[in-house]
Amino acid sequence: MYPVPAEPFLTPTEVLVRLRVNVKTLYRLIGHGELPAVRIGRQWRVRPHDLESWLRRQERGVVTHVPEPAGGTPGEVAGS
Q: Does residue 20 come out as left (phi exceeding 0), alpha (psi in the -120 to 50 range) or beta?
């Protein structure tokens, strides 16, 4: 059995509510590797810790470039 994360993953909808950004902006951030996310099947999930770290970097004005993740551009998430 796999260990359960200390904090449950956030859905794209939950991240959108927290950031108050357009859905296209969120998927662009994920697709460019700027906001770390995990793809589970056809759905994307964000670890709360990764979102908080990303927000702190944005507050400091730190620009990061991460190579595009394997799996291509994120698509629409079912149920969002």
A: left
Tell me the pLDDT of the chain (80 aa) as tens digits: 666 657 799 999 999 999 999 999 999 999 999 999 999 999 999 999 999 999 999 998 866 555 555 555 555 444 44
Please enumerate in sequence order all residues whose Cβ is within 8 A of that of 79, keeping only pairs 6 or more positions apart, or say none.
Answer: none
Question: Domain-by-domain residue ranges, the chain?
Answer: 12-60
Question: What's this model's pTM, rounded to 2 decimal places?
Answer: 0.67
Render the burial of 40-79: b for 16+ CB within 10 Å, e for the rest: eeebbbbbbebbeebeeeeeeeeeeeeeebeeeebeebee
